[in-house]
Amino acid sequence: MIILNVKTTYVPIHKGIAKDVICPICNTKDSIEIIIYQKHIDTGLVYNTTNKLSGTAYCTNCKTEIPNVQWTPEIETVFEKLKAESQIETPGKKYSIIFKILLAFLALVAFGIGYALFSAKATADDKRAILENPTINNKLLIQHQVRESLSQFNDLGNSWAVIRIVTGDTIIIQMHTEKVPLDQINGAMPPTSGYKGKIYKIKKDEFRTKERVSEYHQEKGMGLNYAYIWSFQKE
Ligand SMILES: [Zn+2]
Fold first, then answer.
1. What single-letter DSSP state applies at residue 25?
2. Does the keyword Transmembrane helix apply (predicted)?
3. pLDDT for 124
């Protein structure tokens, strides 16, 4: 929460003695000094030099400030004349560095939210497109485990795979030889080359409906035992 301490200042910009004007309080002539002020407003974040002018009338004889309601038409006339002569400071707003930082921060937050929504949607769109229509060169980030023998499993971690062939009910993928560390799988981008690892055949139907990579043909019970797709990336 930001607490604003608004300061209003009336900056004197012009003054003059009201010639041939009588003080409504002590009836002395030529004793009223009129001062013209320009209003400034400082919120701490924005400094606003307004174009609002006001005035005071002070009698130098009876040492009294004459309230606005007691101003005679003659005082009003001199006030208007002095106002018209005043060299006012150019009205305008100045924004503090904090205000600019705040604006930049809000813009960044808005951009971040927009970008997150956009990339989440792009990712979801990619995933749907690939599941519906797997195509050569689509990439899949897969966490997988292979069965080395009937009783031995080998967890191979996370690696990218590329779709090499799509034919009939079969998709053939080839794994990348490098692993993606677990702390880097969010937002990981697939390598463009280096897909020289193991080759697996997977069932297109199961891939589409269950988002699963299960090996279509297992030789002697060996091969891919378990696979989970972390992300889908179109070419
Ligand atoms: Zn007076």
1. T
2. yes
3. 85
Expressed in angstroms and rounded, the spacing between residue 194 Cα and the centre of ligand 1 is: 96
What is the pLDDT, as a whole number, of residue 221?
A: 56
pLDDT for position 183: 87
CA of 213 to the centre of ligand 1 (A): 98
CA of 81 to the centre of ligand 1 (A): 21
The predicted-structure confidence for 203-219, as pLDDT tens digits, reads as follows 888 888 888 777 755 55
Spans in the chain with pLDDT lower than 50:
none
**Per-residue confidence (pLDDT) for residue 24, from 0 to 100:** 95
pLDDT score at 217 = 54
Q: Does an H or E element contain 164, and which?
A: strand 153-167
What spacing in Å lies between the alpha carbon of 29 and ligand 1's midpoint? 8
CA distances from 97 to 8, 110, 111, 174, 227 (A): 20, 20, 21, 54, 53
Residue 194: how many CB atoms within 10 A of its CB?
12
- How far is 122 from 128, CA to CA, in rounded Å? 10
Cα(78) to ligand 1 centroid in Å equals 16
Ligand 1 centre distance from Cα of residue 37 (Å): 21
Q: Residue 58 C-alpha to ligand 1 middle, in angstroms?
A: 8
Ligand 1 mean position to 82 CA, how many Å?
20
- Gap from CA of 201 to ligand 1 centroid (Å): 105
Give me the residue spans of the domains in the chain. 7-97, 132-233
